[in-house]
């Protein structure tokens, strides 16, 4: 330890780390000792870690190393640290003076949050596959406009992949206004905001009155929209009930029942394609994408914009039979959620996880009109982190 630094009157007592998320509440540091592996640290509650010196140098939060306005990193960690710094603990915070005279100060709570041994805390919930009799979170429109209600909606969306907003006004574009509170609308070839009603010259099954089996929208895009919002303005026609099923749950069921079928569907890219007079949008990707741990990354199931099956002939039969099993699982009663969307309600769901559909309706029995748009999942997580700053 360098005793000269310990008494330095210029050392800031509570280092400013350039973070908007709170870190100030962690315990104070009680020990900081240089070892062969780096800086061994111990906090008041007995927690310990050792951080490499280059890690500490890299995370210096002084205005030369981290831009004071953008909070972005300026320091580039290319040179190894060859000489240890001098070390001081001031009021439980770590102060280092490097060989070249550069001074770094670390808040003990900021370091505590970043101990490599513990998972980073996050305001964003983990995905929870639906369980039997899953009932969606319901948030009233007036609550959605408050930070608490918005947080409840965002949490349900990221955890369950679906949430229902109720008691909203029957006004056009309300879906865009609600979506814009979260982030910019994700535009597609159907526009940034689309109307779902039966139309005279439909370019999409959704714009007819036919039933739509479970699907995701736009699997023919490299990056299909993450979050879909459907706001109901009129639903007086007979039929037209909404259908949903959780891809995270169904993929688990498929893994249990037929792991070979899951392997085929997750390892065999197939083609998806949409064509009209002005577009020809095509993508080749598997129906199911899993991460290295086997968790669902995304579903691409939409039977009517599936393109010609271009596979080696000897793989075709097995692919069709795996597809049929997945289809059966999605459409089995135990996996489906069905309800009638009422005027003033908005259902929102993770388009790359939760499949949606609707029952056929009779356009002569009454009007059915939904307005829809899409959002990026990143913007939902971002809003949740921002709202969590004030907790
Ligand atoms: C869609 C869709 C569902 C509905 O527009 O993609 O699936 O209830 N609509 O009409
Ligand atoms: Zn610095
Ligand atoms: Zn759809």
UniProtKB/TrEMBL annotation:
Example of a GO MF term: metal ion binding
Pfam families: GBBH-like_N, TauD
SUPFAM superfamilies: Clavaminate synthase-like
Residue runs in coiled coils: none
Start and end residues of each stretch annotated as Disordered: 1-27
Residue ranges of domain TauD/TfdA-like in the record: 133-374
Protein keywords: Dioxygenase, Iron, Metal-binding, Oxidoreductase
Compositionally biased residues, Polar residues: 1-11
Cofactor: Fe(2+)
Gene Ontology BP annotations: carnitine biosynthetic process
Domain Gamma-butyrobetaine hydroxylase-like N-terminal: from-to ranges: 36-111
Signal peptide segment: none
InterPro entries (alphabetical): AlphaKG_dependent_hydroxylases, GBBH-like_N, GBBH-like_N_sf, TauD-like_sf, TauD/TfdA-like
Domain of life: Bacteria
Family the entry assigns: Belongs to the gamma-BBH/TMLD family.
Protein name: DUF971 domain-containing protein
Lineage: Bacteria, Pseudomonadati, Pseudomonadota, Gammaproteobacteria, Oceanospirillales
